[in-house]
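Re: that backbone. Tokens:
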């Protein structure tokens, strides 16, 4: 009997090992001209290839990629290109690659917890938002990003109903046959689950409903999202869609948030929230300049009194590493006149 039990156990162990080995069988894949053995649809890009996989897509200095670990979290092969979602320190990018090697297009999909930028700071009774785990789905010609959050509404109001909003903002990227990426023409779509519960800490007779009243409403309008969602929309545009209008869009955003900052009706905590969003715009501007220097440095040189130029100079004073990075980008400018102009500015 013991011998039979031993044989059964050995058979079960063999089956388990076989299943485990099967689950770990590598997928052989060629992305960006590089051969990979991918396990469980997830792999690490060798550090010496980081620049090859995200140069011109990464929002920041190319050399900063040397210190990062890049994960390919999902991918799809098509006849004309391979599309992949990549994770870089909890930020996510999408890129399309030629089979023989070379980036076709790309976009920053999401920064860690960036949905918090969208929390509506205009509510004087206060919104407290927490980011929930985002979701990504990838098809051969489409990428879908879902940003999820939970907001405690009127968090500063004592004694009122307990209100929460569970929200999702969905952004869809379409990819054409050549690998060029575009945001869906329909823009973001929204889903809100708005819950109002009676505040049980407030004593009153409740009759047949001792647990208090609960109202739940679902809609396609997220009530606790405000102007900050425009910041996310701005820096998540595909690289191929950046043109001379892009710095102008940033100017418009800076103008909008500076107007909020100067509003006498905002309380001190609201001013702090607005200032943090302006700081994010400044940070993203620097990253986008380093990603596409010809476009940005040309526009800034032609608009020396712009908010963008003012904030760049402030960033140079604050960040001692920025000047050498910017000088390196200036060296690569094809326009000799523009190159000399910026070398003079950065003296």
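Recovered sequence:
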């Amino acid at each position: 009997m013991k011998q039979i039990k031993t044989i059964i156990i050995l058979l079960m162990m063999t089956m388990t090992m076989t299943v485990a080995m099967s689950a770990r069988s590598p997928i052989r894949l060629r992305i960006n001209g590089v051969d990979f053995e991918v396990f469980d649809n997830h792999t690490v890009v060798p550090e010496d290839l980081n620049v090859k996989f995200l140069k011109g897509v990464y929002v920041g200095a190319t050399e900063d990629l040397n210190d990062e670990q890049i994960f390919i979290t999902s991918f799809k092969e098509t006849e004309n290109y391979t599309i992949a979602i990549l994770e870089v320190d909890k930020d996510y990018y999408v890129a399309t690659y030629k089979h023989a090697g070379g980036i076709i297009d790309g976009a920053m999909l999401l920064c860690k917890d960036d949905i918090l930028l969208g929390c509506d700071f205009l509510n004087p009774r206060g919104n407290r938002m927490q980011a929930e785990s985002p979701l990504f789905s990838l098809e051969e010609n489409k990428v879908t990003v879902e940003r999820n959050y939970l907001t405690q509404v009127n968090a500063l109001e004592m004694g009122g109903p307990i209100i929460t909003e569970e929200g999702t903002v969905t952004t869809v990227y379409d990819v054409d046959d050549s690998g060029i990426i575009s945001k869906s023409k329909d823009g973001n779509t929204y889903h809100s689950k708005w819950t109002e519960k009676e505040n049980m800490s407030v004593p009153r007779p409740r009759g047949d409903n001792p647990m208090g009243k609960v109202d739940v409403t679902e809609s396609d309008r997220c009530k606790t999202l405000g102007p900050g969602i425009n910041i996310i929309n701005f820096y998540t545009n595909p690289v191929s869609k950046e043109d001379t209008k892009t710095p102008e869009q940033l100017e418009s955003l800076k103008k909008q948030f500076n107007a909020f900052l100067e509003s006498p009706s905002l309380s001190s905590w609201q001013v702090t929230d607005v200032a943090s969003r302006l700081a994010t715009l400044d940070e993203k501007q620097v990253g986008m300049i380093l990603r596409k220097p010809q476009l940005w440095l040309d526009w800034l040189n032609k608009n020396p009194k712009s908010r963008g130029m003012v904030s760049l100079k402030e960033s140079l004073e604050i960040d001692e590493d920025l000047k050498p990075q910017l000088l390196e980008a200036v060296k690569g400018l094809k326009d000799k006149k523009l190159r000399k102009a910026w070398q003079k500015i950065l003296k």
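Residues 5-23 have pLDDT under 50 and may be disordered. Residues 242-347 form one domain.
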